[in-house]
Write a structure and sequence with these properties.
The protein has 415 residues and is an all-alpha fold. It has one domain (3-401). It is 83% helix and 0% strand. The chain is built from 11 helices and no strands.
């Protein structure tokens, strides 16, 4: 399979996930209103957050470490089950105790969180073998099953937050089942539990898990801040802008996932060459974001009203486009540094820019600024983090490579 076709598969896999998320959130907005969308956004944000933790701890580890070794395989299995179970219990308990969800909805929410995390691990296992088109198939299955559940509920006139969360849970279960069937034969096996590989997976995966946790955690904190300092409806309006731009955001994330796996598999290529590729990828991804963003802004007056009943705020949409561009400018460098063994340093930089981002948002809201300026504040902090990873982590690594100071490929090209 050619590199170009694989990259297209990566876009397609994220595009299908984007379509599913986008469609369901539009239906929520049209049926439950912006208050309902605000509550759903918080719940869905927690699912994405937990999936990020599972993706970092288990998903990234199975790409970089030797996943077919029995001790590593056992550790991956244990972490997958443990993260899903603990997250399900905690999410359901907090959702109910906070008053955001009633008892039944909280229970379904917990199940959805666990299945969402396990399905993400299944996606990463397929991606590890560059099976991006198979990932798109299981995401399509999840989407179709969720729509069927929502459609049946619509016919009975009982649409609610519980129905939407239940639809996601059932869809994820269907995707996991199909994913097992689509796994290559050499990947379709379980091993007995042993403690031998737990430390090795934790030493790598904990940093990647922490990094994957940061962005969804930041968005969850931001939604909570907007809800507390403004209103749940304001959170829904802000979320409408993010959902409108989500297809571009997830396409960028899909290509970034492809880059991580590609960097991990190109073990023999020098880091200098990989950095040049990361630079080209950043330019291409930012250009793609600007192009798609221009189309989205042009279509906003009629497309926004068609999708949400009222068009999302223009400045919020532009801000989310800028935030997507910042992801495009940051993620390739973070992926390359993590593959190069500097996952702890990447986590530190990302943690700092996350704290800065939340500080920017709090300052904007506390000063009486409108919620439409929140995405732009997030974008500014994210860009700073990406520049730090390139110049303070990757460039010093390259200067220490054998032969870095000789020939035409010297460090002059890095300045």
């Amino acid at each position: 399979m050619t590199r170009k076709r694989t990259a297209l598969g990566a876009i397609g896999s994220q595009g299908m996930q984007a379509l599913s998320s986008f469609t369901i959130q539009v239906i929520v907005a049209r049926t439950l209103g912006f208050d309902g969308l605000g509550a759903f956004a918080i719940a869905y944000g927690v699912m994405v957050l937990v999936a990020g933790v599972a993706s970092g701890m288990v998903g990234d580890s199975l790409v970089v470490l030797e996943r077919r070794e029995r001790s590593i395989r056992s550790a991956l299995q244990q972490y997958a089950v443990g993260i899903a179970a603990l997250a399900a219990i905690a999410s359901a308990a907090v959702g109910w105790a906070s008053g955001l969800l009633d008892a039944a909805t909280a229970l379904v929410f917990g199940v959805a969180v666990a299945l969402f995390a396990l399905e993400e691990i299944m996606r990463r296992l397929l991606m590890a073998g560059f099976g991006f088109w198979r990932v798109m198939m299981i995401d399509f299955a999840a989407f179709c099953v969720a729509l069927v559940v929502i459609g049946i509920a619509t016919l009975t006139g009982s649409l609610s937050l519980l129905v939407f969360l239940g639809a996601i849970a059932i869809g994820q279960l269907a995707a996991i089942a199909l994913g097992i069937a689509l796994l290559p034969a050499e990947e379709r096996f379980f091993v007995g539990f042993t403690r031998v590989g737990l430390v090795a997976v934790f030493q790598y995966g904990s940093w990647r898990s922490g990094q994957q946790f940061l962005r969804p955690a930041m968005l969850t904190v931001v939604r909570t801040l907007v809800t507390l300092l403004a209103s749940l409806a304001a959170t829904g309006l802000l979320e409408a802008g993010r959902v409108y731009v989500a297809p571009a955001t997830l396409a960028v994330s899909g290509l970034s996932s492809y880059l991580f796996i590609s960097f991990a598999n190109d073990k023999k290529k020098p880091l200098r060459e990989k950095l040049r590729r990361a630079d080209r990828s950043v330019l291409a991804l930012v250009g793609f974001t600007v192009l798609v963003g221009t189309v989205l802004v042009a279509a906003l007056p009629w497309a926004g009203a068609l999708l949400f009943g009222t068009a999302p705020d223009l400045f919020a949409v532009v801000g989310w486009i800028a935030y997507t561009a910042s992801i495009a400018a940051v993620t390739p460098y973070g992926a390359l540094a993590a593959v190069a063994g500097r996952q702890a340093a990447v986590f530190t930089v990302r943690a700092i820019d996350t704290v800065v981002a939340v500080g920017f948002v709090w300052t904007v809201l506390a000063a009486g600024g409108g919620v439409q300026w929140v995405p732009a504040a997030l974008a500014g902090a994210s860009i700073l983090g990406g520049l730090a990873i390139r110049w303070f982590i990757l460039v010093p690594l390259i200067r220490r490579e054998p032969g870095a100071g000789t020939g035409s490929g010297s460090s002059a090209g890095l300045r």
